[in-house]
Amino acid sequence: MPGNIIYFAIWLVVVLVLIVNARKVKPEQEKVGVNNFSRVVISLIAIFLFFESFGFPEHIFPFDYNIISSFATKHIGIILMLIGLVIFTFARKKLGKNWSDSSAAVLRKDHELITTGLYKYSRHPIYSGLMLIFLGNAIFIGTIGGLILLCFIIIGLAFSIRREEKFLTIHFPDQYPEYKKRVKALIPFIW
User: Fold this and answer.
1) How far apart are CA 4 and CA 149, in angstroms?
2) Are 33 and 168 in contact (CB under 8 A)?
3) Which stretches within the chain are classed as H helix?
4) Is the CB of residue 78 less than 8 Å from the CB of residue 86?
5) What's residue 30's pLDDT?
6) CATH assignment at residue 82
7) What is the pLDDT of residues 51-65, one digit of tens each?
8) What are phi and psi of 73, to 5 degrees?
9) What is the crossing angle of helices 36-50 and 144-171, to 10°?
10) Largest CB tally within 10 Å, which of 5, 105, 133, 187?
11) Per-residue model confidence as pLDDT tens digits over 108-151
12) Residue 105 is assigned to a structural domain of this protein
């Protein structure tokens, strides 16, 4: 099952990008709003990915009834996950030493507001990439649980975006509101 191997490889790369880059950041200057909801969601994700149909055996796609549909939906899921992974990885790389995980808004020493690269098209391209990864995940596994997980991710990221944007507006009072007017939050030119 090459699709399954790619599926797990994508998740492995996401985890490695987060772990490896977590140490390559500037020292914290200020930290606000530790979001325990994000930590709960991350824990649920870890559990869910290992027991993807645990408690949610109902499939949303007719995997058992139509082999072509199953093949197509799994590949659409993988393609969305790969696109999301590319966006996530490049956005994380561009953010560089200014990065903080979604559990808290962190101002780094000599923090810079990044507005180039993917940040020229989306204020939160890391989150855009993650949402594509989880959308692809839901399509790939095709269970109700996958959709529920996607909903939790969207809610968690919405909280993180709101908290981060308040924080960035305080610390970049001239730059951030102008940047916010020019660039959409998640989907370039749309939203």
Assistant:
1) 19
2) no
3) 2-22, 36-50, 67-95, 125-141, 144-171, 175-182
4) no
5) 66
6) 1.20.120.1630
7) 554 444 555 555 444
8) -65, -40
9) 150
10) 133
11) 677 789 999 999 999 999 999 999 998 998 888 777 777 877 88
12) yes
